[in-house]
Amino acid sequence: MNNEFLFLLPAFVACLVLTGIHTYLGIHVIARGVIFVDIALAQIAALGMTVALLLGFSLESQTAYFFGLGFTLAGACFFAFFRDDRLPEEALIGVSFAASSALAVLIADRIPHGSEHLKFILNGNILWVGWGQILKTAVIYSVLGFFHYRFRHPFLLVSNNPAEARKQGLKLWLWDLFFYSSFGLVITSSVQMAGILLVFSLLIVPALIALLFTDRLKTRLVVGWILGTVISGGGIAASYAWDLPTGAAIVAAFGITLAGAVVIRKAN
Protein backbone atom coordinates (compact mmCIF):
# COMPACT_ATOMS: atom_id res chain seq x y z
CA MET A 1 0.00 0.00 0.00
CA ASN A 2 2.88 2.34 0.82
CA ASN A 3 4.37 1.84 -2.63
CA GLU A 4 1.06 2.68 -4.32
CA PHE A 5 0.66 5.75 -2.11
CA LEU A 6 4.17 6.99 -2.96
CA PHE A 7 3.51 6.37 -6.66
CA LEU A 8 0.26 8.40 -6.66
CA LEU A 9 1.47 11.13 -4.30
CA PRO A 10 3.19 13.35 -6.94
CA ALA A 11 0.01 13.44 -9.06
CA PHE A 12 -2.06 14.43 -6.01
CA VAL A 13 0.40 17.15 -4.94
CA ALA A 14 0.46 18.46 -8.52
CA CYS A 15 -3.35 18.74 -8.41
CA LEU A 16 -3.10 20.68 -5.12
CA VAL A 17 -0.63 23.13 -6.70
CA LEU A 18 -2.88 23.57 -9.74
CA THR A 19 -6.04 23.94 -7.63
CA GLY A 20 -4.54 26.75 -5.56
CA ILE A 21 -4.15 29.32 -8.32
CA HIS A 22 -6.68 27.96 -10.82
CA THR A 23 -9.60 28.35 -8.41
CA TYR A 24 -8.65 32.01 -7.88
CA LEU A 25 -8.25 32.67 -11.60
CA GLY A 26 -11.49 30.76 -12.27
CA ILE A 27 -13.39 33.26 -10.12
CA HIS A 28 -12.01 36.08 -12.30
CA VAL A 29 -12.81 34.25 -15.53
CA ILE A 30 -16.42 33.61 -14.46
CA ALA A 31 -16.83 37.24 -13.34
CA ARG A 32 -15.51 38.45 -16.71
CA GLY A 33 -17.84 36.08 -18.57
CA VAL A 34 -14.96 34.66 -20.63
CA ILE A 35 -15.33 31.03 -19.60
CA PHE A 36 -13.50 29.60 -22.58
CA VAL A 37 -10.47 31.90 -22.45
CA ASP A 38 -8.67 29.19 -20.50
CA ILE A 39 -9.18 26.50 -23.10
CA ALA A 40 -8.36 28.97 -25.90
CA LEU A 41 -5.05 30.04 -24.30
CA ALA A 42 -4.28 26.40 -23.47
CA GLN A 43 -4.79 25.49 -27.12
CA ILE A 44 -2.59 28.42 -28.21
CA ALA A 45 0.13 27.15 -25.83
CA ALA A 46 -0.31 23.69 -27.34
CA LEU A 47 0.13 25.22 -30.80
CA GLY A 48 3.44 26.78 -29.70
CA MET A 49 4.65 23.44 -28.31
CA THR A 50 3.60 21.71 -31.55
CA VAL A 51 5.70 24.20 -33.54
CA ALA A 52 8.66 23.43 -31.24
CA LEU A 53 8.11 19.71 -31.87
CA LEU A 54 8.08 20.35 -35.63
CA LEU A 55 11.46 22.10 -35.27
CA GLY A 56 12.90 19.03 -33.56
CA PHE A 57 12.64 19.92 -29.86
CA SER A 58 11.27 17.47 -27.29
CA LEU A 59 7.85 18.24 -25.87
CA GLU A 60 9.26 18.11 -22.32
CA SER A 61 12.15 20.47 -23.14
CA GLN A 62 12.55 24.03 -21.89
CA THR A 63 12.55 25.20 -25.50
CA ALA A 64 9.09 23.71 -26.07
CA TYR A 65 7.93 25.40 -22.85
CA PHE A 66 9.16 28.80 -24.02
CA PHE A 67 7.59 28.29 -27.45
CA GLY A 68 4.28 27.60 -25.71
CA LEU A 69 4.76 30.59 -23.41
CA GLY A 70 5.59 32.92 -26.32
CA PHE A 71 2.49 31.89 -28.25
CA THR A 72 0.34 32.22 -25.12
CA LEU A 73 1.61 35.72 -24.32
CA ALA A 74 0.88 36.74 -27.93
CA GLY A 75 -2.67 35.43 -27.43
CA ALA A 76 -2.93 37.30 -24.12
CA CYS A 77 -1.91 40.57 -25.83
CA PHE A 78 -4.52 39.90 -28.53
CA PHE A 79 -7.32 39.47 -25.97
CA ALA A 80 -6.21 42.54 -24.00
CA PHE A 81 -5.81 44.99 -26.89
CA PHE A 82 -8.86 43.89 -28.87
CA ARG A 83 -11.33 44.35 -26.03
CA ASP A 84 -14.15 46.24 -27.70
CA ASP A 85 -17.75 46.71 -26.54
CA ARG A 86 -18.97 46.14 -30.10
CA LEU A 87 -17.31 42.73 -30.36
CA PRO A 88 -18.36 39.89 -28.02
CA GLU A 89 -15.14 38.78 -26.33
CA GLU A 90 -16.36 35.18 -26.29
CA ALA A 91 -16.56 35.29 -30.10
CA LEU A 92 -12.87 36.29 -30.36
CA ILE A 93 -11.96 33.57 -27.86
CA GLY A 94 -13.94 30.94 -29.79
CA VAL A 95 -12.34 31.88 -33.12
CA SER A 96 -8.87 31.85 -31.49
CA PHE A 97 -9.51 28.35 -30.14
CA ALA A 98 -10.77 27.03 -33.48
CA ALA A 99 -7.92 28.60 -35.47
CA SER A 100 -5.16 27.45 -33.10
CA SER A 101 -6.67 23.93 -32.98
CA ALA A 102 -6.77 23.73 -36.78
CA LEU A 103 -3.17 24.97 -37.10
CA ALA A 104 -2.00 22.43 -34.49
CA VAL A 105 -3.70 19.63 -36.43
CA LEU A 106 -2.12 20.80 -39.71
CA ILE A 107 1.36 20.94 -38.14
CA ALA A 108 0.93 17.62 -36.31
CA ASP A 109 0.03 16.05 -39.65
CA ARG A 110 3.63 16.77 -40.75
CA ILE A 111 5.21 15.27 -37.61
CA PRO A 112 5.83 11.54 -37.04
CA HIS A 113 3.40 10.36 -34.32
CA GLY A 114 1.70 13.78 -34.50
CA SER A 115 -1.67 12.34 -33.45
CA GLU A 116 -0.06 10.93 -30.28
CA HIS A 117 1.29 14.41 -29.53
CA LEU A 118 -2.18 15.94 -29.85
CA LYS A 119 -3.61 13.27 -27.53
CA PHE A 120 -0.86 13.97 -24.99
CA ILE A 121 -1.53 17.72 -25.05
CA LEU A 122 -5.28 17.13 -24.62
CA ASN A 123 -5.14 14.57 -21.81
CA GLY A 124 -1.75 15.34 -20.24
CA ASN A 125 0.15 12.80 -18.22
CA ILE A 126 -0.16 13.96 -14.64
CA LEU A 127 0.43 10.45 -13.28
CA TRP A 128 4.07 10.66 -14.35
CA VAL A 129 4.81 14.23 -13.27
CA GLY A 130 8.10 14.57 -11.40
CA TRP A 131 8.87 16.38 -8.15
CA GLY A 132 11.20 18.81 -9.97
CA GLN A 133 8.43 19.96 -12.29
CA ILE A 134 6.00 20.27 -9.37
CA LEU A 135 8.48 22.41 -7.43
CA LYS A 136 9.21 24.65 -10.44
CA THR A 137 5.48 25.12 -11.09
CA ALA A 138 4.80 25.85 -7.39
CA VAL A 139 7.47 28.58 -7.40
CA ILE A 140 6.04 30.19 -10.56
CA TYR A 141 2.50 30.11 -9.14
CA SER A 142 3.64 31.52 -5.79
CA VAL A 143 5.21 34.54 -7.51
CA LEU A 144 2.11 35.08 -9.65
CA GLY A 145 -0.15 34.56 -6.63
CA PHE A 146 1.74 37.26 -4.72
CA PHE A 147 1.46 39.58 -7.73
CA HIS A 148 -2.32 39.10 -7.86
CA TYR A 149 -2.66 39.49 -4.09
CA ARG A 150 -0.63 42.74 -4.14
CA PHE A 151 -2.88 44.22 -6.84
CA ARG A 152 -6.08 42.34 -5.93
CA HIS A 153 -8.28 45.46 -5.69
CA PRO A 154 -7.80 46.71 -9.30
CA PHE A 155 -7.86 43.15 -10.65
CA LEU A 156 -11.17 42.41 -8.90
CA LEU A 157 -12.69 45.78 -9.85
CA VAL A 158 -11.83 45.34 -13.56
CA SER A 159 -13.22 41.78 -13.53
CA ASN A 160 -16.43 42.54 -11.61
CA ASN A 161 -17.25 46.11 -12.64
CA PRO A 162 -15.26 47.41 -15.64
CA ALA A 163 -17.48 50.50 -15.95
CA GLU A 164 -16.65 51.57 -12.39
CA ALA A 165 -12.97 50.75 -12.98
CA ARG A 166 -12.99 53.01 -16.04
CA LYS A 167 -14.70 55.77 -14.00
CA GLN A 168 -11.94 55.52 -11.38
CA GLY A 169 -9.31 56.12 -14.04
CA LEU A 170 -7.99 52.57 -14.42
CA LYS A 171 -6.71 51.71 -17.89
CA LEU A 172 -8.68 48.57 -18.70
CA TRP A 173 -6.39 47.45 -21.52
CA LEU A 174 -3.37 47.62 -19.18
CA TRP A 175 -5.03 45.58 -16.39
CA ASP A 176 -6.39 43.17 -18.99
CA LEU A 177 -2.84 42.78 -20.29
CA PHE A 178 -1.54 42.08 -16.75
CA PHE A 179 -4.35 39.59 -16.16
CA TYR A 180 -4.13 37.70 -19.44
CA SER A 181 -0.30 37.65 -19.39
CA SER A 182 -0.14 36.17 -15.87
CA PHE A 183 -3.02 33.87 -16.77
CA GLY A 184 -1.15 32.72 -19.88
CA LEU A 185 1.97 31.98 -17.84
CA VAL A 186 -0.11 29.80 -15.50
CA ILE A 187 -1.84 28.02 -18.37
CA THR A 188 1.42 27.23 -20.20
CA SER A 189 2.94 25.65 -17.10
CA SER A 190 -0.27 23.77 -16.31
CA VAL A 191 -0.85 22.37 -19.80
CA GLN A 192 2.66 20.95 -19.99
CA MET A 193 1.97 19.13 -16.71
CA ALA A 194 -1.73 18.20 -16.82
CA GLY A 195 -3.16 18.66 -20.33
CA ILE A 196 -5.87 20.95 -21.64
CA LEU A 197 -8.96 19.12 -20.32
CA LEU A 198 -7.79 18.82 -16.70
CA VAL A 199 -6.54 22.42 -16.62
CA PHE A 200 -9.93 23.65 -17.86
CA SER A 201 -11.77 21.54 -15.25
CA LEU A 202 -9.56 22.77 -12.39
CA LEU A 203 -10.12 26.37 -13.45
CA ILE A 204 -13.88 26.35 -13.91
CA VAL A 205 -15.54 23.60 -11.87
CA PRO A 206 -14.43 24.46 -8.27
CA ALA A 207 -15.14 28.18 -8.82
CA LEU A 208 -18.51 27.40 -10.44
CA ILE A 209 -19.68 25.07 -7.66
CA ALA A 210 -18.60 27.61 -5.03
CA LEU A 211 -20.57 30.28 -6.88
CA LEU A 212 -23.71 28.13 -6.59
CA PHE A 213 -23.64 28.32 -2.80
CA THR A 214 -22.00 31.62 -1.81
CA ASP A 215 -21.31 35.12 -3.12
CA ARG A 216 -18.48 35.93 -0.70
CA LEU A 217 -15.08 35.92 -2.37
CA LYS A 218 -13.12 34.44 0.55
CA THR A 219 -15.69 31.71 1.11
CA ARG A 220 -15.72 30.88 -2.60
CA LEU A 221 -11.94 30.56 -2.57
CA VAL A 222 -11.92 28.25 0.46
CA VAL A 223 -14.80 26.13 -0.90
CA GLY A 224 -13.10 25.94 -4.30
CA TRP A 225 -9.77 24.86 -2.79
CA ILE A 226 -11.44 22.17 -0.65
CA LEU A 227 -13.48 20.89 -3.60
CA GLY A 228 -10.47 20.85 -5.91
CA THR A 229 -8.48 18.85 -3.36
CA VAL A 230 -11.22 16.33 -2.58
CA ILE A 231 -12.32 15.80 -6.20
CA SER A 232 -8.74 15.43 -7.45
CA GLY A 233 -8.02 12.88 -4.73
CA GLY A 234 -11.21 11.01 -5.58
CA GLY A 235 -10.38 10.97 -9.31
CA ILE A 236 -6.85 9.67 -8.66
CA ALA A 237 -8.18 6.98 -6.31
CA ALA A 238 -10.79 5.92 -8.90
CA SER A 239 -8.14 5.76 -11.64
CA TYR A 240 -6.04 3.48 -9.43
CA ALA A 241 -8.94 1.29 -8.31
CA TRP A 242 -10.37 0.72 -11.82
CA ASP A 243 -7.16 1.10 -13.85
CA LEU A 244 -8.36 4.22 -15.70
CA PRO A 245 -6.38 7.06 -17.35
CA THR A 246 -5.71 9.41 -14.42
CA GLY A 247 -6.31 12.76 -16.12
CA ALA A 248 -9.58 11.62 -17.71
CA ALA A 249 -10.74 10.10 -14.41
CA ILE A 250 -10.17 13.39 -12.56
CA VAL A 251 -11.97 15.38 -15.28
CA ALA A 252 -14.93 12.96 -15.11
CA ALA A 253 -14.99 13.33 -11.30
CA PHE A 254 -15.17 17.12 -11.67
CA GLY A 255 -18.04 16.80 -14.17
CA ILE A 256 -20.03 14.39 -11.98
CA THR A 257 -19.53 16.60 -8.91
CA LEU A 258 -20.71 19.69 -10.79
CA ALA A 259 -23.84 17.86 -11.96
CA GLY A 260 -24.54 16.75 -8.38
CA ALA A 261 -24.01 20.28 -7.05
CA VAL A 262 -26.49 21.70 -9.57
CA VAL A 263 -29.09 19.10 -8.56
CA ILE A 264 -28.57 19.89 -4.85
CA ARG A 265 -28.82 23.62 -5.52
CA LYS A 266 -32.04 23.20 -7.50
CA ALA A 267 -33.51 20.93 -4.81
CA ASN A 268 -32.97 23.64 -2.21
Provide structural commentary.
The structure is a single chain. The protein is an all-alpha fold and 268 residues long. It has helices spanning 2-32, 37-54, 62-81, 89-108, 114-123, 131-150, 152-160, 162-167, 172-194, 196-213, 217-241, 246-267. It is globular. The relative contact order is 0.17.
Concise structural overview:
The protein is mostly helical and 268 residues long. The chain has helices spanning 2-32, 37-54, 62-81, 89-108, 114-123, 131-150, 152-160, 162-167, 172-194, 196-213, 217-241, 246-267. It is built from 12 helices and no strands.
Tell me the major beta sheet: none
| Helix/strand order, N-terminal first | HHHHHHHHHHHH
From the alpha carbons, calculate the radius of gyration and give it in angstroms.
18 Å
- State the secondary-structure class: mainly alpha
Mean pLDDT across the residues is 88
> Strand share of the residues?
under 5%
Low-confidence stretches: none
Shape: globular
Number of DSSP strand runs: 0
Portion in helices = over 70%
Distance between the termini: 41 Å
Task: Output the number of helix runs.
Answer: 12
